[in-house]
Design brief:
Helix content: 55-70%
Order of helices and strands: HHEEHHHHHHHHHHHHHHHHHHEHEHEHEE
Strand order of the largest sheet: 4-3-5-7-6
Strand content: 5-15%
Number of strands: 7
Largest sheet: 5 strands, mixed
Number of helices: 23
């Protein structure tokens, strides 16, 4: 099947194009509030302060909500490439490239092109999006993939012993990526598969459990110990709060940093069928047509349990966001690959799948030519860069934005109330202030008259007092 030229492997061509598109967008699109800019700012502070143990959401303010793996990666990238959007996102691009290289062998084993799973993954909107988003979810998905693939290879590929140890390394890295959720998302589908196919002895004999558990502990425990020692209370907040109270209650009152996302029960399935289009729909049809033989093939059953468990687990949770489906993108691609030979209309399916990322780049290009990105992107980057030559103190009304903190290199301050605003005005010293449109009503009209608007976007404006 050729979609481009008989002289060029179409899979190589399109996978390369998609990675280049994603890399370009990683460079071109500003870090956006709230989540992405928040994690980038935490990494920027880590790189600046050289404090690799305690994550900080602001100088001297510990961030207990997540372990450090993602922050370490972005902070290291800042040290190598400088503090910018591309550097913040580069580790997530790299992790997903490693994933697509890791799973290519499963296509080769069926006589298919090595990059077929890569093409499928990179045309899944959720996966392509998180090939360039600063978050913990890409690192978690990488660790889940490493654990699940290493488990399979560890008990089936006796000649390559390193898989047996990568299984436990993956668990340790997962504990550093997002915590005990790595065990919650991987152990149940493995256990169910093991029970159905009566693989107890094989699993017990194939994996070095004692040494492996020690390896997992050596990878993860030192940071947890040091984090609790540096900022007592972390362990209780992270383990009890983030892993139990957040899951059970979208309105958890103990959340120090988050933004409650109350969703209808079962919303995770909507996210799955919306953000994994068109492949999840194609897979659903394939699974239904082959339902009679699904549990007769160990590999198919393994992938199916892997896909189903994450949305089943989050079905009862109302506190969730769409990136929670990231850990099942890989088994979707692998199961599609398994059924690829019997799939009809392959060329048409790939064209439909490619249309989504190509449409995204077209929209961005059109926005650039119409000079609209600065207006519609939820970031303070343009306000700060366009007024940096004024060398004036910079404030944000009521609450600091994370993008403002990042692009001002931590110099952004807050003016929390009208008394503080009046004090700054009465000092007769010029300053800049970013004000969200919906919060203008909280400012005294007399103070507002003294501020001159310089720029505006769909959410905020920046003003000067001089």
């Amino acid at each position: 099947m050729m979609l481009f030229s008989k002289k060029i492997n179409p899979y190589t061509f399109w996978v390369s194009i998609l990675i280049l598109i994603r890399a370009f967008l990683n460079y071109a699109i500003p870090l956006m509030d709230k989540t992405e800019a928040r994690y980038a700012e935490i990494a920027r502070i880590m790189a600046e302060t050289n404090n690799w143990t305690t994550l900080q959401i602001d100088y001297g303010v510990p961030f207990w909500a997540k372990p450090p793996l993602s922050t370490w990666l972005s902070a290291l990238s800042f040290n190598i490439f400088g503090v910018n959007e591309f550097a913040a996102r580069f580790p997530y691009l790299l992790l997903n490239i490693i994933i697509v290289l890791l799973i290519g062998k499963y296509a080769k084993r069926k006589g298919l092109d090595f990059l077929l799973p890569a093409l499928i993954l990179l045309t899944i909107p959720e996966f392509l999006l998180h090939t360039g988003v600063v978050s913990t979810d890409t690192a978690l998905a990488f660790c889940v993939t490493l654990v699940m693939i290493s488990f399979w290879e560890g008990i089936h590929n006796i000649a390559q012993n390193f898989w047996k140890y990568l299984f436990f390394i993956g668990l340790g890295l997962g504990l550093l990526a997002k915590g005990p959720i790595i065990i919650i998302l991987t152990a149940p589908p493995i256990f169910v598969w093991m029970v159905i196919f009566k693989q107890y002895k094989t699993v017990w004999k194939s994996l070095p459990w004692v040494l492996g558990i020690l390896i997992t502990g050596l990878v993860a425990i030192p940071w947890y110990y040091l984090a609790e020692q540096k900022t007592p209370g972390f362990f209780n907040y992270f383990i009890v709060g983030e892993h139990f109270k957040r899951f059970l209650s979208s309105g958890w009152k103990g959340d120090k940093y988050g933004f409650p996302k109350s969703q209808p029960m079962g919303m995770i399935w909507v996210f799955l069928f919306l953000f994994a289009i068109p492949w999840i729909q194609i897979l659903a049809i394939k699974v239904w047509k082959n339902k009679a033989i699904l549990l007769k093939n160990k590999w198919v059953a393994f992938l199916l349990f892997w896909i189903l468990w994450t949305p089943i687990f989050f079905t009862v949770s109302k506190s969730l966001i769409h990136p929670y489906i990231m850990p099942v993108m890989v088994p979707i691609a692998l199961l599609i690959t398994h059924f690829w030979e019997e799939t009809t209309h392959k060329k048409r399916i790939i064209k439909i799948a490619l249309s989504i990322p190509l449409l995204a780049i077209f929209i961005y290009t059109a926005a650039v030519f119409t000079k609209k990105p600065a207006f519609y992107i939820n970031s303070d980057k343009f306000f700060i860069e366009n007024n940096s030559d004024k060398n004036l103190p910079l404030y944000h009304w009521e609450n600091k934005s994370y993008s403002g903190q990042f692009y001002s290199k931590g110099s952004l301050k807050t003016i929390e109330n009208n008394a503080d605003l009046s004090k700054n005005i009465n000092s007769k010293k010029s300053f800049l202030i970013i004000i969200p449109h919906k919060k203008i009503k909280n400012i005294d009209k007399e103070n507002m008259k003294l501020l001159k608007e310089l720029e505006s976007n769909y959410k905020k404006s920046i003003y000067i007092f001089n």
